[in-house]
Amino acid sequence: MSMKSAVKEHVNSHVTEHVKKHGSFLLNEILLDGFISKLEVDNQNFVKYMDGLEFKKFSQEDLDNSAKLYQEVFSQQPWNDEWFRLSRVKEYLRELIENPVFSGFVVYQNSELVAACLGHSRSWWSGDEFFIDEFFVSSKYQGQGIGSLLMDYVENHPELKNIESFQLSTNSNVPAKDFYHKNGFKTRKNRVTMTKKFF
Prior knowledge:
Layout: H1 3-22, E1 39-41, E2 47-49, E3 53-57, H2 63-74, H3 86-97, E4 102-109, E5 112-122, E6 129-137, H4 146-155, E7 165-168, H5 175-182
Parallel strand pairs: 6-7
Antiparallel strand pairs: 1-2, 2-3, 3-4, 4-5, 5-6
Helix pairs in contact: 2-3
């Protein structure tokens, strides 16, 4: 039996048992490609991989790590945001997570935070939406597929099972736009982002 067949059999047996208890959960074929070698699902909705990747819901304990990673990612090229004070980043992220309709998801690699998705649900005439406020991956791990796996995890998470669409806003001249296109997001031709500055 090939390694991929063995992994697929292992994944299917664990997922089938989990789905009977909890419903759909991270089932896309992407789990069987690339660097992932084993999937285990425990009772707390964690997804763990043999190579040390751990996907889980955001908790208050993740705030400090998320603030540090956010500052690191967005202070660099191509964003060059001026997040000089970590306390300011924490204040911003705390405002996001205190939203009563907030949902967040994080990825750890051997206890190091490497990616996060922070957003909120909202009601809309066409169905419930999930708006991704922030999505960021450590520069050391970009281009390795972790962002796509996190997106897949979020889209299939039971907490968001009633969500009918995902929305986000990003700059048009950064690699993030290509990443979102690759993961199924489309540019809306009839929408434009507008800003009015007061000083």
